[in-house]
C-alpha cells in the first residue's frame, strides 16, 4: 500500500527518514512529503495557507493508484484530516502521531509567534515540558539546524470540512506527550477539543511515552508502531 507521511511544523520529508525503513519493511511504499514553503529556509512562503498544504497531499493521492494510508505528525495530522475529507473513498487508514483530527473551523495553532509573516521554530521556552521529554541538547540542536519557518497562515487558517464520510475512515492515535487514557476520558466527558475525534467510528490507541517529536526521540519504537497500525500490505 502507498503510505503518505506528512510532517509537522518546521519539518520536511527528511524528518521521516528514521521511520520509513519500518514502513517499507512491512511491504508498503513510503511517500514522505515536503509541503509547499518548507523546501528550504529561502523558499517563498508568502500566500501559502492550510488549504494549499491539504491540496498538495490530495494531488499526491490522486497520482497514486488504489487505497492510500496517511500518517500525520503534529500539525500534519490536521492536513491528513483535510485530505480524508477531500478523498474519503481513497483513504484506507490514518495514523496520527501525537496529533488528532481537528473539527471544521479549527486552526492548528494560532498562538505561535509570527515573525515577518512566517513562524520560525520558537525558543524552547515557548513549549510545555511535556513537549520536550527526551529531546536532549543534541537533538534540540539538530532539530533547530534543520527547522524551516512555517507559513503563518498554515498555523492560523481554519480548516474547512464538508464530507461526513471522513468519520468512516479508521484511525490510530499514537499518543506520546499524554497517555491515550486522557483522550478516552476527554471523549467520555464530552470535551470540546476532542469533538471531532469522538465522531470517528473506529479508533485505536497506541501509547508511546516520550515528547512531541518521537521521530527524533524514539524513532525505532515509532517506526514499529506505525508499521503495526497500517493495514496489511497489498
From TrEMBL:
Domain called AB hydrolase-1: residue spans: 3-221
UniProt keyword terms in alphabetical order: Hydrolase
**Which InterPro entries does this one have?**
AB_hydrolase_1 (IPR000073), AB_hydrolase_fold (IPR029058), Sec-Metab_Biosynth_Hydrolase (IPR052897)
Cross-referenced Gene3D superfamilies? alpha/beta hydrolase
User: MF terms per GO, please?
Assistant: hydrolase activity
> Entry's Pfam families?
Abhydrolase_6
Q: Which PANTHER family match?
A: AB HYDROLASE-1 DOMAIN-CONTAINING PROTEIN-RELATED (PTHR37017), ESTERASE_LIPASE_THIOESTERASE DOMAIN-CONTAINING PROTEIN (PTHR37017:SF11)
Task: Return the protein name.
Answer: Alpha/beta hydrolase
